[in-house]
Design goal:
The structure holds 2 protein chains of 2 kinds.
Chain A: E1 4-7, E2 10-13, E3 19-25, E4 31-37, E5 43-51, E6 54-57, E7 64-66, E8 76-78, E9 87-94, E10 104-105, E11 109-113
Chain B: E1 3-5, E2 10-14, E3 19-21, E4 24-26, E5 31-38, E6 44-50, E7 56-58, E8 64-68, E9 73-78, E10 87-95, E11 102-104, E12 108-113
Parallel strand pairs in B: 2-12
Antiparallel strand pairs in B: 1-4, 3-9, 5-6, 5-10, 7-8, 8-9, 10-11, 10-12
Classes of the chains: A mainly beta, B mainly beta.
Chain lengths: ~110, ~110
């Protein structure tokens, strides 16, 4: 079955450490997204990519970085500059240019500080 | 810019009773509207969407939603709630003209009691 795989499910970060969250999709979608979910705040967009080798900042990009070297993969790095990284991170994908189509989501990565 | 409001943080209903989860939106153009459900430690699952046409939209698991343009609302409904419907529900809006700008509400936690 096609879908989005996020790994790891749980991740712990030490002070001053960068960590990378993996997101892989086999849906052949061009557009991919990263969201941060905090209790009571809904989903906030970190970065999105519409095509390989291109990506744009979302509402809360500071302290995060991404790459899009392959269509299937959109990894997110949480850098040491992100001072409050504890959250649930969700990756999503969608058919680009089809605004009436829903996003498909992975099952998330929960990041905590050690 | 578009925004979404879910005025109730929590909705409690008894099993077998009808349920309503409210959503209002604010946009400057024509919206696509979506409902998603999230179970603990999982990603969001798509329930239904409004694109155009009939104001009553039917979706997965017996859920439906009514689009009301004059009241800018898109309330989620189900005639008879199940305990298994207990979850976090998100309303989302995307402008037809802004393909990658999707806004989520803060979420409503639905609890169905036996």
């Amino acid at each position: 079955d096609g879908g989005i795989t996020q790994s790891p499910k749980y991740l712990f970060r030490k002070e001053g450490q960068n960590v990378t969250l993996s997101c892989e999709q086999n849906l052949n979608h061009d557009a991919m997204y990263w969201y941060r979910q905090d209790p009571g705040q809904g989903l906030r967009l970190i970065y999105y990519s519409q095509i390989v080798n291109d990506f744009q900042k979302g509402d809360i990009a500071e302290g995060y970085s991404v790459s899009r070297e392959k269509k299937e993969s959109f990894p997110l790095t949480v850098t040491s500059a992100q001072k409050n990284p504890t959250a649930f991170y969700l990756c999503a994908s969608r058919v680009q240019g089809r605004g009436n189509q829903p996003q498909h989501f992975g099952d998330g990565t929960r990041l905590s500080i050690l | 810019a578009q925004s979404v409001a879910q005025p109730e943080d929590q909705v409690n209903v008894a099993e077998g009773n009808p349920l309503t989860v409210k959503c209002t939106y604010s946009v400057s153009g024509n919206p696509y509207l979506f409902w998603y459900v999230q179970y603990p430690n999982r990603g969001l699952q798509f329930l239904l969407k409004y694109i155009t046409g009939d104001n009553l939209v039917k979706g997965s698991y017996g859920f439906e939603a009514e689009f009301n343009k004059s009241q800018t609302s898109f309330h989620l409904k189900k005639p008879s709630a199940l305990v298994s419907d207990s979850a976090l529900y998100f309303c989302a809006v995307r402008l037809r003209e802004a393909d990658n700008d999707m806004r989520f509400g803060a979420g409503t936690r639905l609890t169905v009691k036996p």
